[in-house]
Amino acid sequence: MARIRYFDGTKYVEIEVTEEFAAEYAAMEHRDKLVERKETRRHQSLDKSMEHGWDMADPSADVDIQAERNADKILLNAALSKLTDKQRAILFLHIENGQSFRVIAAELGLNKDTVREHYLAAIKNLKKFLKNTPSKFNSRGD
User: Fold this and answer.
1) Which residues on neighbouring strands pair with residue 51, listed in sequence order?
2) Integer Cα distance of 81 and 73 in angstroms
3) SS3 for 48?
4) Crossing angle, helix 112-131 and helix 63-81, to 10 degrees?
5) How many other C-beta atoms are found inside a 10 Å radius of the C-beta of residue 103?
6) Would you tell me the crossing angle of helices 101-108 and 112-131 to the nearest 10 degrees?
7) Averaged over 19-42, what is the pLDDT?
8) In this predicted model, what pLDDT tens digit does every residue of 105-130 receive, in sequence order?
9) Is 15 helix (H, G, I), strand (E, B) or coil?
10) Residue 100 and residue 16: Cα distance in Å, rounded?
């Protein structure tokens, strides 16, 4: 018979067990210590890397999705560049800021109907540009 010590949550307890069980228990404790040491080293290594300002790749980031988003941004910027300054401003104020045509008209010193016409022309031009550009926008059926 052999004796082993284990922690029951409050204190260490010594019990008598078979030689075979004691050997398995010792091997299990050894494996646990190796894993714990490895994890500690990994965390220290990551902490050190972050301390020195190294960027760590986000494992959850999907490269294909990121590439697709970048392509979409480039395409959208190209489409927006085809608009007049006034159309871009009105589009931005209405879509991004949620301003009504009446508020935009007052801000730009224009008639509300003129603002609406510029907005509709901007949307029409964007659709036309995106329709004529090979991209995933065309395959959506939008």
Assistant:
1) none
2) 12
3) helix
4) 130
5) 15
6) 110
7) 83
8) 999 999 999 999 999 999 999 888 88
9) strand
10) 81
